[in-house]
Amino acid sequence: MTTGADWAEQARRLLEAVKAAAAPDSSGDDTGEHPAGECKWCPHCQLLAVLRGDRPEVTAVLDDVLATASAALRSLSGQPTPEPAEHADEPSHRDPAPTVQRIDIA
Questions:
Q1: Does residue 32 register a pLDDT over 50?
Q2: C-beta of residue 55 within 8 angstroms of C-beta of residue 49
Q3: Alpha-carbon distances, residue 45 vs 2, 39, 56 (angstroms)
Q4: Which of 28, 58, 33 is CA-nearest to residue 45?
Q5: Rounded CA gap, 86 and 64, in Å?
Q6: Are 59 and 53 in contact (CB under 8 A)?
Q7: HEC profile of 52-100
Q8: 3-state class of 40 per DSSP?
């Protein structure tokens, strides 16, 4: 088991490493390996790229995930699914979608 002093030393070293990684190069030039604005791996830059519209495939997947989560939460809450306004006065003649799918295993 580590002592409190060990934890403090590890936290200090971690903070120094994060500061060093976030600081610009000490040489002063901006000719780094990855220019600003071209990061493709950190979640922050990926979110900004989605908001700018640079990543339509991620936007489509995110839209699908949010729609599915919304439908799941709506079904759990017991509230009926809102119908579109233009079809509100027409009776529904189609069968409701099944809540489960039967899969036969051979």
A1: no
A2: yes
A3: 36, 6, 15
A4: 58
A5: 23
A6: yes
A7: HCCCHHHHHHHHHHHHHHHHHHHHHHCCCCCCCHHHCCCCCCCCCCCCC
A8: coil
Residue type, 33: E
**Is 43:37 a contact under the CB 8 Å cutoff?**
no
d(Cα 47, Cα 36) in Å, to the nearest integer? 15
When pLDDT is cut at 50, 70 and 90, the band that residue 38 belongs to is: low
Residue type present at position 52: R
Residue 55 DSSP symbol: -
Query: Please, is 46 exposed, middle or buried when counting C-beta atoms within 10 Å of its C-beta (0-12, 13-18, 19+)?
Result: middle
- Cα 54 to the chain's mean position, in Å? 15
Q: pTM for the complete prediction? A: 0.34
